[in-house]
Design a protein that fits this description.
alpha+beta, Immunoglobulin-like, extended
Length: about 425
């Protein structure tokens, strides 16, 4: 009778051991099943765009790590492959056939063909904000640039049964613009350039007011807005549609506005005078002492360069027919037949060094008034004589080639139909214009 409890304990212990072995076997099978998952490639090649950074990583699943990837085929110019990663900025569009292979630690491998597509960069997206319901009171209108960088844009905004409050127009601090509002036709034309390419920002806003006793649905007007964006390189983005505008006569065009924005705030640096060579008794005999001013002037003058040893050692050759005789430093170039010669400076007295030629004044692009700095004065000068042209018209001459003389008002300040050309005199760098960014 006493042996039965012992037997029961033995049977219980044996059952527990069997159960443990069974569970261990199940776990081992589960691990073996996981390790036996087949090796496979996981490739996701999104469409890339010219001049936009591109980045994708080759991945795999299953098999036994680590993986080793290889890539065969020609990548578009600007992209490189390294350690399972394709990156760079593509410079050409097209479809590029590639072969991707992966090998795991058990030397299992998989190969797959894939096509990498590089397309033309889409233009930035226009985002307009306005009430969607019918309104009878003034409301704000917002013009935003989305998704991709823009250097600038040309826009035409119709205002059907609406009026623009010019004093409500506020632009981003980085936007230089020219605005024309034809109240009779109900059309706002805007040419604008950012001082540096921008995206995902509010470019400008204004307040629109319904005409008296009118209830309007803004969507009916603003859905007809037309815009042509210029990409970060200053080229028309995508297949920009031409914007038909009432042309006007003027001296400056969109390219001048772009030059002002590109060099906004830049100033010409005065040329540093070149230090004079030390004077020697052979070249300059002792001079009598004069006033301090004379002494300073003598120190700043540069004597003519001495001939090289090769020139001094070789005998002078007579000039050949139809050739001008060689000139020595400081000697004027003889005139050529049939060529107009610039005026020569007066020869210096004997024993004095020849005066240095005056350097040409450098030109800063966008400096329309020539004061050596690109600033608001140049922008207002451009606004006072701006030739409105349709997008895609290029640099064609305005309707009349006559350029108004200095002091005469530019005829481009009026628009057909009696509407006036209004420009905002506010400084585009005014912090108030960044309101609502």
């Amino acid at each position: 009778m006493r042996k039965r409890p012992v037997l029961g304990r033995v049977l219980l212990l044996g059952g527990l051991v069997f159960l443990g072995i069974l569970l261990a076997a199940c776990g081992s099978d589960s691990q073996n099943n996981q390790s036996r998952q087949p090796l496979r490639l996981i490739l996701r090649f999104d469409t890339g765009y010219v001049d936009e950074p591109y980045n994708t990583t080759l991945t795999a699943d299953g098999g036994v790590r680590p993986y080793r990837f290889t890539l065969e085929g020609n990548l578009p110019r600007g992209l490189v492959y390294s350690n399972g990663r394709i990156s760079g900025t593509p410079q050409e569009k097209g479809s590029f056939e590639l072969i991707v292979s992966v090998e795991d630690a058990n030397l299992s491998n998989r190969t797959q063909k894939v096509t990498l597509v590089i397309g033309e960069t889409p233009p930035p997206r226009l985002d307009q904000v306005f009430p969607l319901a019918e309104v009878a009171d003034p409301f704000p209108y917002l013009f935003r640039v989305r998704d991709r960088e823009a250097r600038g844009f040309q826009a035409q905004i119709p205002l059907k049964d609406l009026k623009l409050a010019l004093d409500s127009f506020k632009a981003d601090a980085s936007l230089l613009y020219v605005l024309r509002y034809n109240e009779e036709r109900g059309v706002v034309d805007i040419d604008a350039v950012f001082t540096s390419p921008r995206k995902d920002l509010e470019a400008f806003r204004f307040t629109a007011t319904p005409l008296p006793d009118k209830k309007v649905r803004p969507e009916a007007s603003f859905r007809e807005t037309r815009v042509a964006f210029y990409d970060k390189n200053g080229k028309l983005a995508g297949n920009a549609q031409a914007i038909e505008r009432a042309a006007s006569e003027g001296k400056y065009r969109y390219s001048d506005l772009e030059a002002i924005a590109r060099n906004w705030g830049r100033r010409l640096t005065p040329a540093t005078p070149r230090p004079s060579a030390p004077q020697t008794p052979e070249n300059n005999p002792p001079q009598s002492q004069g006033s301090p001013a004379q002494a300073a002037g003598t120190a700043q003058e540069t004597p003519p360069a001495a001939p090289t040893d090769q020139t001094a050692s070789e005998p002078a050759q007579p000039p050949q027919p139809e050739e001008a005789p060689p000139t020595q430093p400081g000697q004027a170039q003889p005139p050529q037949p049939g060529q107009a010669q610039p005026a020569q400076p007066e020869p210096a007295p004997q024993g004095q060094p020849a005066p240095a030629p005056s350097p040409q004044t450098p030109k800063l692009e966008g400096d329309l008034n020539g004061d050596g700095v690109v600033d608001l004065k140049d922008l207002e000068l451009l606004r006072s004589s701006y030739a409105w042209a349709s997008v895609g018209a290029g640099q064609a001459a305005p309707p009349s080639s006559r350029t108004p003389p200095p002091g005469e008002a530019a005829p481009g300040n009026s628009t057909p139909g009696g509407g006036s050309s209004n420009t905002n005199p506010e400084n585009p760098q005014n912090p108030e214009q960044s309101e609502g960014k």
